Amino acid sequence: MASLTIAEVNKLDSEEFLEVFGNVVENCKLAAAAVWSHRPFRGVDHLNQTIAEFLDALPQKGKEGVLRCHPDLAGRLAQAGQLTAESTQEQRSAGLDSLSQDELSTLTHLNQQYKVKFGFPFVICARLNKKDAILSGLTERVKHSAEEETLAGVEEVKKICRLRVADIVTSEAKL
Ligand SMILES: NC(=O)N[C@H]1NC(=O)NC1=O
Question: Domain Oxo-4-hydroxy-4-carboxy-5-ureidoimidazoline decarboxylase, which positions (predicted)?
Answer without folding.
Answer: 10-165
